[in-house]
Amino acid sequence: MNAVDANDQHPGISELSAPGTPDTSKDLQKTVRELEKAKKELEVSHHRYKQLFNLSPEAAVVISVTGIIRDCNQAFFRMSGYAPEEIIGKHFTKTAIFSAKDLKSYLKIFASLIKKHENASYEYQWHDKSGQLHYSVAHIAPLIENNKLTGFQAISRDVTAEVITKNELLETKQRFVAYIQSSPTSVAIITREGTFQYCNPAFLRLMETDEPKQPSHTFLSYVFPADEAIAMACIQQVEKEKKLAGKAIRILTSRGQVKHILLDALFYPENDIVLYCKDITEIITANQLLEERNDRYKQLNQELNDSYNEKAALLRCLPDLMFTFSREGIIVDYHASSLQQLYVEPQYFINQPLQKVLPPYLAEVTKKAIINVLKSKQINEYTYHLPVEGKDHIFDARMVYVNEEKVLTIVRDITERQMLIEELRQAKEKAEQSDRLKSAFLANMSHEIRTPMNGIIGFSELMRDPSFSEEERNRFASSVVNSSRQLLAIVNDVLDISRIESGTMAVNMHLIAIHEFASELKKIYIQIAAEKKLQFHVNIQLNSDTSFYSDRVKVRQILDNLLSNAFKFTKQGVVTLQITGRVDSICFEVLDTGPGIPAHKLEEIFERFVQLEMEINRNYGGTGLGLSISRKLASLLGGEIRVKSKIGKGSIFTLSLPMKYEASDF
Fold first, then answer.
1. What whole-number distance in Å separates Cα of residue 150 and Cα of residue 114?
2. Which pLDDT score is estimated for 613?
3. Cα–Cα distances in Å, from 179 out to 182, 201, 210, 336?
């Protein structure tokens, strides 16, 4: 605000100096001196105000009651990028600070300020000279002179970082909630007393209900009565150990159906308990059926053995097929319930030696069995494979003693039974593996998500403490942003692997300039290398105009993953990005001097949720999805990822991608 000339403010000073009586003259001179003193004090006060005005770290603006911008401090010009002549003397609506769509609402605010003559605070958005959008909070005070409103002074603080952080947190939370809502895993949040706080749709479907019956309705009310003690022990364990993994209990649904579930749980920061329930009813039923069949099979075998001991050799066996062999190995007789059971007509094997009928290896096995049975008079059992009509069949053979010259062999085709047993075994192993992977993934994801969430909550609380300085709160805000990005990266990993597995991952092919692309990577990772006190080299063995055709975002995602891993596990030495090419392909090699990977683990590291050792997960974090996603993305782009490593020397990860473009000669 410009100083006002003292003579302009007191136009009667020259008149007060007019000649008069001596006493009057002295009084006038004294009055003049006092006025001059007041004028100097006013100028000093105005000078101090201007200094405070210009040195304020917050942007300050003085606007007349007609909307003309009268003055702005240096902080305003630094923030906005405008020069004084572009702003001062203009109506605030005639500047480029505010967008046209916002002017109507700002004019209403200005009219309200003129009407009320009161202090006010508003949040608004504006653009600097470069066009960048900012968010600020303005504290506005009216300027009153001689009981008349002459304008307003506004002090503005830039809150762009806080607004962006708030929006990112909201978006992350919404995406996380959407993920839980759409998750096939049954998830519920309960209090320590078991009262429901939240249930996702999968949980409600599991319980066969639309919602908990009433506020007092508890999780224990769904537990099968005989398992209530187990469920209560589970809740106590979660309270004590903060987690629970893989506890099987039974529940009773709203429709009275008994289900078996596998229960995992975590202790929530708000003293609630998060339940993850997996319906294993079908697995339990299949296991029970398998046990029943095994019991039945044992029972039949026992009954058959009893029959063998009580009856003749023929009746003891209850065979599908029976063959009688002489001591010399001649097939002298057979029995079959129907000729369809015989894969060769009788005239081709009756009274024929084993060597002419059976394959050499089976003839040798049968001959040895005949000798053993005749010698020991004990049942000899063996299993063999025999091609029948072009298919491999499995037979169970039991040879029993008849007399000194003959043995009886009962042959049973067990192909279908063996296939059923193998299918059941594979199904059981697959179910157990799936359960282990799910439990490990949920535990790992819970830890990975909880870590940045705790950072977000903690630093957000600190930002609300007015005792911290602006610099400290800005630092807290940066920590919140970093934690939010970490949490967003975790959610993106989960979404990426889901899209890849479901085949919905889109590919957007563009022309990528190698040197420009490598320069972007170098700018980012040279800083990371400096922070970790490592060396980082980029070696491009291609012409400066070489380009290739691929999905830039996905190639960047793969290389970010490989480079991040290299820096994560390399404590000292060098990380190198080497780019080479051939006529039809391009190779990115990431070399590090880290601890190396055992040879038998080189393929396991590309599997989902797998990390070399649990100790690595504890020390470095991560969901175990990165390399799996990278390999699948490389395959999606028509390329591949290979790895070579030596313990104590380091590792080399190679990403090969097709050129798919007529590039310059190498």
1. 10
2. 43
3. 5, 11, 20, 62
What number is the average pLDDT over the span 523-545? 90
Nearest Cα residue to 581 out of 552, 546, 551: 546
Are 558 and 630 in contact by the 8 Å Cβ rule? The answer is yes
Amino acid at position 264, single letter: D
Question: pLDDT per residue over 445-487, tens digit each?
Answer: 665 676 667 777 877 877 888 888 888 878 878 777 767 866 7
Cβ proximity of 411 and 386 under 8 Å: no
How buried is residue 264: exposed, middle or buried, by Cβ count under 10 Å (0-12/13-18/19+)?
buried
Radius of gyration of the chain (CA): 43
In degrees to the nearest 10, what's the CA dihedral of 623, 627, 628, 630?
A: 120
- Whether the CB-CB separation of 151 and 143 falls below 8 Å is answered with yes
Nearest to 590 by CA among 606, 604, 579: 579
Mean pLDDT across the stretch 101-116?
86
Here the contacts of 302-310 (C-beta below 8 Å, separation 24 or greater) are 308/379, 308/400
pTM for this entry: 0.36
What is the Cα–Cα distance from 594 to 588, expressed in whole angstroms? 18
Contact 606, 628 (CB under 8 A): yes
Return the higher-pLDDT residue of 493 and 216: 493
For residue 407, give both structure tokens.
Answer: 């043995």
How far is residue 630 from each of residues 160, 566, 587, 602, 658, measured CA to CA in Å?
35, 14, 15, 15, 16
**What single string gives the DSSP state of each residue in 485-543?**
HHHHHHHHHHHHHHHHHHT------EEEEHHHHHHHHHHHHHHHHHHTT-EEEEEE-S-
Q: Are 509 and 549 in contact (CB under 8 A)?
A: yes
Give the span between the Cα atoms of 275 and 566, in whole angstroms.
36
How far is 623 from 630, CA to CA, in rounded Å? 13
Cβ atoms of 290 and 424 within 8 Å: the answer is: yes
Angle at 135 between CA 131 and CA 139, to 5 degrees: 125
pLDDT of residue 666: 32
Q: For residue 648, give the amino acid letter.
A: G
| Domains within the chain, CATH numbers bracketed | 6-158 (3.30.450.20), 167-284 (3.30.450.20), 316-413 (3.30.450.20), 429-501 (1.10.287.130), 506-658 (3.30.565.10)
Q: What is the amino acid identity at position 319?
A: P
Residue 4 has pLDDT above 50, yes or no: no
CB of 555 within 8 A of CB of 657? yes
Residue 577, SS3? strand
User: Can you tell me the distance from the alpha carbon of 574 to that of 554, in angstroms, rounded to the nearest whole number?
Assistant: 25
- What's the rounded Cα separation, in Å, for the pair 597 and 651? 7
Token pair listed for 208: 């066969």
Q: What are 645's two structure tokens?
A: 């490593």
Q: What are phi and psi of 640, to 5 degrees?
A: -155, 165
| CB 153, CB 60: distance < 8 Å | yes
Which helix (H) or strand (E) segment is 64 a member of? strand 59-64
Q: What pLDDT score was predicted for residue 582? A: 82
Helix (H, G, I), strand (E, B) or coil at 665: coil
Q: Which of 481, 492, 479 is nearest to 448 (CA)?
A: 492
Closest of 447, 455, 456, 438 to residue 621, by C-alpha: 447
Q: Is the dihedral of CA 624, 630, 633, 634 positive or negative?
A: negative
Map residue 383 onto helix, strand or coil. strand
* Tokens found for residue 508: 């957007």
Q: What is the pLDDT of residues 63-94, one digit of tens each?
A: 999 989 988 988 888 888 999 998 899 988 88
Q: Which spans in 56-95 are helix H?
A: 74-80, 84-87
CA–CA separation, 276 and 268 (whole Å): 13
d(CA 357, CA 103): 101
